[in-house]
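== Polypeptide entry ==
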Amino acid sequence: MEFANKEYFLLLLLLIPYLIWYLLYRKKSEPTMRMSDTFAYRYAPKSMRVRLLGLPMLLRIITFVLVVIIMARPQTHNSWGSRTVEGIDIMIAMDVSTSMLAEDLKPNRIEAAKAVASQFISDRADDNIGLTIFAGESFTQCPMTTDHTSLINLLQNVRTDIAAKGLIEDGTAIGMGIVNAVSRLRESKAKSKVVILLTDGVNNRGDISPLTAANIAKSMGIRVYTIALGSKTVAPYPMPVGGTIQYVNVRADVDTKTLSEIASIANGKFYQATTTRELKKVYEDIDKLEKTRMDVKKFSKRYEAYQGFALAAVITMLLEILLRLTVFRRLP
């Protein structure tokens, strides 16, 4: 712990004259009574109240010390720490086209994919993980990082309406999604490099075909796990009609053949996920991959730490006042 205003500790020197005054002049302020002989009182037992006469004074000093500590602004210190861990370098490539709003997975495909991916990220504390999103175009939402809190926050902010609002082209550019993720893994020194591709459609956009992207991944030693999201038949889809939402059944058009070929070429596995449980299975398989050692640096942020001292100061002050008004109350 560090203190931002250390100069305030000089105020503790005021305790010295205060204690001297208390010890020298306390007896003069006490009421007295003249007696011819005090022999009878010499060995009389002292009550607990007499033994604790100095307790209010002690509580006042403790309160003063705590107030000085608060004024000095206690803080946790900034620090860099490094450790060697074992992990995998992973890029998640997630489809965010409007078809991901279909509700055959609950509450819908995109939310189910985000929930399972978030849990996977939380459980893989030592992995470098990044996020690529794609519809008709692809871009990196988060580069690979071990700061999984920030990554999960960015993942939770992923929405399908970026295509509907025209921020990116709608459609499904599977090849572009893979290539974008592969480009982030290109410089990785890890022994195990993985792309996890989640999509519910057929490649219909992009300048690079899915199989070409799979061969690029293979040439760089990157495994590609492909997940076909959604029902094999039809799925309820929320269709906006005249300011309201009408549900229609849409036919599943995911290209399982191409996704299976991608996984085969890039030494990965293909999964058809019609339930959340099936979606989790792909992440269980990744745990079996070979891990690699890497050095991780972690930064600890400074924050104010006065709260505990303030609470203690209030308690000691109130306790002193209570004792002076009750147990140690003096009559004029």
User: Anything to note?
Assistant: Residues 36 and 42 are 13 Å apart (CA to CA). The longest strand covers residues 79-87. The chain has a mean pLDDT of 84. The radius of gyration is 34 Å.
